[in-house]
C-alpha cells in the first residue's frame, strides 16, 4: 500500500485550500468493495470529441449521480444536472441523494455497477485512502486538462484555487478526488453575542478564558461542540497545535511518526482545551449533543463559541437569528511571544469530495458534470444557495456574501500563507474520527480522561495504524 504521499506540502500549505464535511466510515466498507481492476466491457461508448465536447461524452448515454444530502443539500447538483441535460438532451440523468453513502453504494461497488459521479461526503462516506489503494477510482486528470467552461483557453486545473488539485492526489500524479467546496475551519461565534458582553474575539488564550468567565457570570457557556461527534474539535484544535508548535508538528502527526503526539505543542493545546472543561465553560449536556443540536444551542445564545466548518452557515440557517452576525475566528494565541505561528493561522482545506468510480459506465459524463459545476454559473449558484465558496478561484464577483462567508474570506486574507491543512482526516479516516475523535478527545472534553491520558491513548492508536500493513500509508514530502 505504498509509503509516500504525493503532496508537495509546502506549496499547498502556503496557500489557502478549503472545506468538507467530515465522516466516520466503517473501515469494513471498502474491504468488500475494493477488489481493484475492472474492465471496460460495461462502459458506454465514447462520443465524438469536439470543441464543445472535449471529454468525448456520449450524447445519449445515461448519467447516474449520487449526492450527499447534508449541509449543502442537493439542489446545487440538480441545477448543474439541468445544465448537463440542456447540453445533452438525449441523455437521461438519474439523480439520487442520501446521507448513507457507504451503506447505499457498497453493494453497487461490490457488484461492479457504481454510479458515474459520487459526492462522497458525510458521516458515512467511503474511505478515500482505501478506494485509492484498491484502485477503485478514475484518474481525473482528463477533466483537469480539459478546457474550462468559461474560458476555453484555460484548462480546468488552471481555474482552481491553489492546493485543490494536490489534495486530490495520494501518490504519483494521478488525481483521484475533486474537492468541490472551499471551506474554512475554526472557532465560530456570533459578533452580536460578543457585543452584548462588551467583548471582542479573544486573540490570546488568557482573553479566551476571560471572555468565557464573563459569559459564565451571565449564565452563558463559553463553548459547545458536537459531543456525539467530537471529531469536530480538531477543526480548531489542530490549527491551535500548529500555531503553538509550527506546522511541522501536524506534518509529523499526519506521517504517523513515533511519538508525534507527545510533542509539547500537543500537550499545551490539550491542557488549554481541558481547562475549558475544568472551569465549567462547556455548555452543560454538550457530550450528548449532535452537530445540529450543538449548533442550535449556539444559535440560541446558550454558548459563545463552537468549532466548525463554514458549511455551518447554511446548515444552521433555520435556527440562526437575523441579527446573529456569524463569524469565524482563528485559534487564539497561547503565548504570542513563543508560538511558532502568528495569530490568524487557520485551517482551510478542500472538502465535499467528488469521485468518479473506475467501473462507472459513463465516466466521461461524470467528469463533464464536474466541468459544468466548476464553471462560474454553477459556482455562483452554489455560493448563493449554501453560503460556501467553491474550488473555482474567484467566482464571487457581483455577489453579496452572507456574514459567515464574508468572515471566511476575511480570515483567509488575514492568514495569508499561514494556512494549515492536516491530512490525517483524509488519509486515515477511521483513526481520525472514531479513535482520535470519539474514543479520545470526546472522553477528555467530557472530563473522563486527562490530557496526558488522552495523548497516550491517541499515540497508541496512531502506532497501531503505523504497524498495520493492511492500511496504506501516506507521507508529506
UniProtKB/TrEMBL annotation:
Keyword Transport: yes
Subcellular location: Cell envelope
Top-level taxonomic group: Bacteria
Keywords per UniProt: Signal, Transport
Keyword Phosphoprotein attached: no
Family that this chain belongs to: Belongs to the bacterial solute-binding protein 1 family.
Protein name: N-acetylglucosamine/diacetylchitobiose ABC transporter substrate-binding protein
Species annotation: Streptomyces nondiastaticus
Gene that encodes the chain: ngcE
Amino acid at each position: 500500500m505504498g509509503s509516500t504521499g504525493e503532496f508537495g506540502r509546502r506549496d499547498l500549505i502556503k496557500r489557502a485550500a478549503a472545506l468538507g464535511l467530515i465522516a466516520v466510515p466503517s473501515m469494513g466498507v471498502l474491504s468488500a468493495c475494493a477488489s481493484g481492476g475492472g474492465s471496460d466491457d460495461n462502459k458506454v461508448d465514447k462520443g465524438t470529441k469536439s470543441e464543445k465536447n472535449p471529454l468525448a461524452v456520449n450524447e445519449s448515454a445515461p448519467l447516474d449521480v449520487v449526492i450527499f444530502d447534508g449541509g449543502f443539500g442537493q439542489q446545487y447538483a440538480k441545477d448543474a444536472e439541468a445544465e448537463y441535460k440542456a447540453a445533452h438532451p438525449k441523455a437521461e440523468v438519474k439523480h439520487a441523494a442520501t446521507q448513507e453513502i457507504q451503506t447505499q453504494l457498497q453493494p453497487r461497488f461490490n457488484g461492479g455497477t457504481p454510479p458515474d459521479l459520487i459526492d462522497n461526503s458525510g458521516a458515512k462516506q467511503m474511505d478515500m485512502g482505501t478506494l485509492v489503494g484498491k484502485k477503485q477510482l478514475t484518474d481525473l486528470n482528463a477533466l483537469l486538462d480539459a478546457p474550462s467552461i468559461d474560458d476555453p483557453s484555460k484548462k480546468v486545473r488552471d481555474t482552481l484555487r491553489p492546493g485543490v488539485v494536490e489534495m486530490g492526489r495520494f501518490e504519483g500524479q494521478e488525481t483521484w478526488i475533486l474537492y468541490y467546496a472551499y471551506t474554512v475551519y475554526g472557532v465560530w461565534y456570533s459578533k452580536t453575542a460578543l457585543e452584548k458582553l462588551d467583548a471582542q474575539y479573544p486573540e490570546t488564550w488568557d482573553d479566551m478564558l476571560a471572555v468565557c468567565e464573563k459569559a459564565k457570570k451571565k449564565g452563558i457557556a463559553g463553548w459547545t461542540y458536537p459531543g456525539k461527534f467530537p471529531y469536530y474539535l480538531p477543526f480548531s484544535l489542530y490549527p491551535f497545535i500548529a500555531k503553538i508548535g509550527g506546522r511541522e508538528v501536524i506534518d509529523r502527526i499526519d506521517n504517523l511518526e513515533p511519538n508525534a503526539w507527545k510533542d509539547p505543542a500537543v500537550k499545551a493545546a490539550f491542557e488549554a482545551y481541558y481547562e475549558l472543561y475544568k472551569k465549567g465553560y462547556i455548555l452543560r449536556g454538550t457530550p450528548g449533543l449532535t452537530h445540529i443540536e450543538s449548533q442550535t444551542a449556539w444559535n440560541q445564545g446558550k454558548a459563545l463559541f463552537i468549532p466548525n466548518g463554514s458549511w455551518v452557515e447554511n446548515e444552521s440557517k433555520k435556527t440562526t437569528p437575523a441579527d446573529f452576525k456569524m463569524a469565524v475566528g482563528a485559534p487564539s494565541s497561547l503565548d504570542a511571544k513563543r508560538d511558532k505561528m502568528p495569530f490568524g493561522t487557520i485551517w482551510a482545506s478542500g472538502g465535499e469530495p467528488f469521485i468518479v468510480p473506475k467501473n462507472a459506465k459513463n465516466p466521461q459524463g461524470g467528469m463533464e458534470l464536474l466541468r459544468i459545476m466548476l464553471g462560474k454559473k454553477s459556482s455562483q449558484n452554489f455560493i448563493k444557495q449554501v453560503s460556501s465558496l467553491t474550488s473555482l478561484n474567484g467566482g464571487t464577483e457581483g455577489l453579496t456574501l452572507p456574514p459567515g462567508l464574508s468572515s471566511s474570506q476575511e480570515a483567509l486574507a488575514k492568514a495569508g500563507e499561514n494556512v494549515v491543512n492536516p491530512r490525517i482526516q483524509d488519509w486515515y479516516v477511521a483513526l481520525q474520527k472514531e479513535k482520535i475523535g470519539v474514543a479520545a478527545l470526546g472522553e477528555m472534553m467530557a472530563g473522563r480522561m486527562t490530557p496526558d491520558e488522552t495523548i497516550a491513548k491517541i499515540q497508541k492508536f496512531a502506532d497501531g495504524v503505523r504497524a498495520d500493513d493492511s492500511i496504506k500509508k501516506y507521507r508529506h514530502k
